[in-house]
Amino acid sequence: MDKKVSKCGGWTALGVFTALTAAKAGWILYSKRYIDHHAKLNLILNAEHHTYHSPTAGAINYYFNGQGDRTPLLLVHGLHLYAGLYDVLPVFEAFGSSRPVYAIDLPGFGGSEKSDRPYRPSMYQEAISDFIKNQIGQPAHVLALGNSSAFASMAALGEPDWVRSLVLINPRSFEMPRPTTLNAQIFRERVQNLLLSYLKVPLWSLPIYDLLASRTRINAFYHKRFSYSVPGELVDLAYTSAHQAGAHFAPMVLLSGKLKVDNVREKYYEKLTLPVFVVYDNEEGISFDMLPQLLNEKTNWKTFHSRNTRGMPHFERSGELFRQFDLFWKKLDQ
């Protein structure tokens, strides 16, 4: 009796394994043959559209609008699997009438270069500082969203004469510190390297990304970050951006954890001496427990709490928020 059960159970396990293998192979085939990976990113804006060729970060897609002699503004979107400058469009459209405004796609995202290369935080830092120095050509205010706040802060510390101020929307690394050891850090880096090696295998790298970048998953991602309805155009642009040639390379590095900057608060935020304005809200999984302590220690830091939003306050509380931005920048311009 026991042998019979074991045999049946063995056949069941084999059947499940065979079915999973067939499903995996089927999805790989479907991804390569039937999913369009050359979609056209059609971002319709009443603005100038250009490409800046950075010697270290490659071709950077950007939009420009505005005029006047006020300090220019550079907008930097956050990083997620389908990121692009469309995540900061409300700010771009609001301030073009009062100052020169630039919005860039970071390397590997949106319309910027998506080649297979070693994406690392230093590349994103350089993309920001190099763009300000060699394309804008004068010191600029920088607004960064989410985890890109770390890159903007790194750029501000590295090139203090070129960044006039920082506006950070839901910056990371304000959770309570967790003790760690050198051995734990080494182990984590090994795991990240191993995971990245697996995610970059050409046979299944793109199919995995296709599975993660479906329209359903993109809609679910944004739905978590909006208190009300998600703009349909935002989902469309993110989906199109995620279905271009090479669109999976940078997201695979992000998924492995290799783009995360450790100890941002201690290494960068606490060393900033320029004016910093933080907007934070109720984004799921993001903590700001250590922000009050930093505010007590650093007089150059100011904050605004958006109470009824969940990650994209510049879309849902734009009127109130943009008045705060305008006052902050005008004061510094004077």
Q: Overview of this structure, please?
A:
Helices cover 46% and strands 14% of the residues. It is of the alpha/beta class and 334 residues long. The chain has a domain at 48-178 and 256-333: Alpha/Beta hydrolase fold, catalytic domain (Rossmann fold, 3-Layer(aba) Sandwich). The termini are far apart.
Which terms summarize this structure?
single chain; 334 residues; alpha/beta; Rossmann fold; 8-stranded mixed sheet; 46% helix; globular; disordered N terminus
Fold topology:
Elements: H1 2-34, E1 48-54, E2 58-65, E3 73-76, H2 89-95, E4 101-104, H3 121-136, E5 140-145, H4 148-158, E6 163-169, H5 182-199, H6 202-212, H7 215-223, H8 232-241, H9 249-256, H10 264-267, E7 276-280, H11 291-297, E8 301-305, H12 313-316, H13 318-333
Parallel strand pairs: 3-4, 3-5, 5-6, 6-7, 7-8
Antiparallel strand pairs: 1-2, 2-4
How is this structure best summarized?
With 334 residues, this protein is α/β, with parallel strands linked by helices. The chain contains 13 helices and eight strands.
Mean pLDDT: 89
Shape: globular
**Main β sheet profile:** 8 strands, mixed
Write down how many β-strands occur, each being a DSSP E stretch of 2 or more residues: 8
Name of the CATH class of the domain at 48-178 and 256-333? Alpha Beta
Q: For the largest beta sheet, what order do the strands appear in spatially?
A: 1-2-4-3-5-6-7-8
Which spans have pLDDT < 50 for at least 5 consecutive residues?
1-9
Gap from first CA to last CA: 88 Å
Structural class: alpha/beta
Radius of gyration: 22 Å
Give the ordered list of helices and strands.
HEEEHEHEHEHHHHHHEHEHH
Enumerate how many helices there are, as a single number.
13
